[in-house]
From TrEMBL:
Location of the Dyp-type peroxidase C-terminal domain: 223-415
PROSITE patterns associated with the record: DYP_PEROXIDASE, TAT
Domain Dyp-type peroxidase N-terminal: 69-212
Name of the protein this chain belongs to: Peroxidase
One Pfam family hit: Dyp_perox_C
InterPro entries, sorted: Dimeric_a/b-barrel (IPR011008), Dyp_perox_C (IPR048328), Dyp_perox_N (IPR048327), Dyp_peroxidase (IPR006314), TAT_signal (IPR006311)
Family to which this protein belongs: Belongs to the DyP-type peroxidase family.
A Gene Ontology cellular-component term: cytosol
Keywords associated with the record: Heme, Iron, Metal-binding, Oxidoreductase, Peroxidase, Signal
One GO molecular-function entry: metal ion binding
Co-factor(s): heme b
Length: 427
């Protein structure tokens, strides 16, 4: 399974493929229809030419409407903000509906590069830069609106005492807004617009901001690197075969989506200790994961896409990929244990940066860095938890990493232009 490299242009904001429109209009038949069709085609082509002349991010829209929400299997843009909110105490089901309608209306406008009506800085809404807004629900939304629809897995993950040092400030939440864009200014504006519009319903619980390689810094589809310098995201479900449908959207016979077009998101904030990582030499770093640092190839192969041979041994009979190597421990042990990893790096400023952060310490030293580890799957209990359990028991990477936040959300299906995100809870 290779990282998904689908281009966002295939996801049109208006749900209409412009080239299909041109072809359709040009072939409308005789007389007036033909003339109108030709005129229409010319206009569409002229608009296309005008758009082609613009800087690419000004027209890079990811469609908001559809049977699934964008921001899951669409290519991850360079910047992301994950915002967990808590619902205000007095809210009723009707308030939640109003809240979701507002979020839907704002998100539809902003992702199309248009300013919502009450936008006081409408100029900041004009560069969509692949903006996506993805909505997730915590338990309380179901409890208030439709308890019968609450997925059984929607609760805090079981503890992983060997590794967890969870902090409340990065955990849980009633409502998630995941906002991604190639342009940090577009993202900041969308975040402020959405939060302004929902502030009478919710209180922000935490915000996690993350980044990946900048737009244009590598070929489309190149797997990103994390702050350990590792190629991170090689083995993943993809839309190029059936794996994305099976494991993220739940079409696999042993899985079931909580609702058609819905999925789940587990967010683990994982501190990465770069000070102690500095002490490990290159062979030790590669041995810890089971892949090389330069190309990301498995230690038994030549290139990133080579399949890791977990049975290969050295001349002395030791496994080439160690028993404690991250990829050996993380690899699926049954037909459904596949997750979509869509991580973002974080790197917070450290005041008075000095000294050294020891093993297991999550502060001090000269950096405060890590991964916003986002895992999408149809069923966290069947897919994410067994992998995390194995890694908690044994994984050499634990020497340098500490989970400090944890949250689980149900992502509802997408909606049509006349609907709103989460509408199925109200029917
Ligand atoms: C800071 C924490 C972590 C780092 C730095 C990290 C890094 C990596 C790297 C470099 C790879 C190899 C390349 C690839 O396939 O992407 C990998 C693979 C993988 N990781 Fe992680 N990872 C972390 C946490 C996790 C967690 C928490 C999970 C799940 C609970 C996980 C699940 C996986 C899986 C399923 C694979 C693919 C395994 C296979 O080869 O089949 N990782 N990770």
């Amino acid at each position: 399974m290779k990282h998904d490299s689908q281009h966002p242009d295939s996801h049109t904001s208006d749900g209409i493929n412009r080239r299909t429109l041109v072809a359709g209009a040009a072939g409308t038949g005789l007389g007036v229809a033909a003339t109108l069709g030709a005129q229409f085609a010319t206009e569409v082509r002229a608009q296309e030419r005008a758009e082609e002349a613009l800087p690419p991010l000004q027209t890079a829209r990811v469609g908001f409407f559809g049977r699934r929400q964008a921001g899951v299997d669409t290519p991850p843009p360079a910047h992301a903000s994950f915002i967990a909110c808590d619902l205000n105490e007095e809210l009723k089901a009707a308030d939640i509906e109003r809240l979701l309608r507002i979020i839907t209306a704002d998100a539809a406008q902003l992702t199309a590069g248009r300013a919502p009506v009450v936008d006081q800085e409408p100029e900041l809404a004009t560069i969509p830069a692949e903006l996506t807004v993805t909505v997730g629900f915590g338990e309380k939304i179901f409890d208030l609106v439709n308890p019968a629809k609450k997925p059984g897995w929607l609760k805090p993950l079981t503890a992983f005492p060997q590794i967890d040092q969870l902090q409340e400030q990065w955990s849980h939440g009633d409502l998630l807004l995941q906002i991604c864009s190639q342009d940090p200014l577009t993202l900041a504006h969308a975040q402020r617009m959405l939060l302004k519009d929902v502030r009478s319903f919710v209180t922000v619980r935490w915000v996690q901001s993350g980044f990946r390689n900048a737009y244009g810094s590598s070929q489309q589809g190149t797997t990103q690197r994390n702050l350990f310098g590792q190629v991170d995201g090689t083995i993943n479900p993809t839309s190029q075969d059936e794996t994305m449908d099976q494991f993220v959207w739940g079409s696999h016979e042993d899985l079931e989506p909580w609702e058609e077009g819905g999925t789940s998101l587990v967010i683990r904030r994982i501190h990465m200790n770069l000070d102690t990582w500095d002490q490990a030499d290159r062979p030790a770093r590669e041995d810890a994961v089971g892949r090389t640092l330069d190309t990301g190839a498995p230690l038994t192969g030549e290139s990133e896409d080579d399949v890791a041979d977990l049975s290969a041994t050295t001349e002395l009979g030791f496994p080439v990929i160690a028993p404690y190597a991250h990829i050996r421990r993380a690899t699926a042990q049954n037909p459904v244990e596949h997750i979509l990893r869509r991580p973002y790096n974080y790197d917070l400023p450290v005041s008075n940066a000095s000294g050294f952060s020891d093993h297991g310490q999550t502060s001090g030293g000269v950096s405060n860095s890590g991964l916003i580890f986002c895992s999408y799957q149809a069923d966290p209990l069947k897919q994410f938890v067994p992998v995390q359990k194995r890694l908690a028991e044994l994984d050499m990477l634990n020497t340098w990493t500490v989970p400090i936040g944890s949250a689980v959300f149900a992502l509802p299906a997408g909606c049509s232009e006349s609907g709103f995100i989460g509408e199925s809870l109200f029917s």
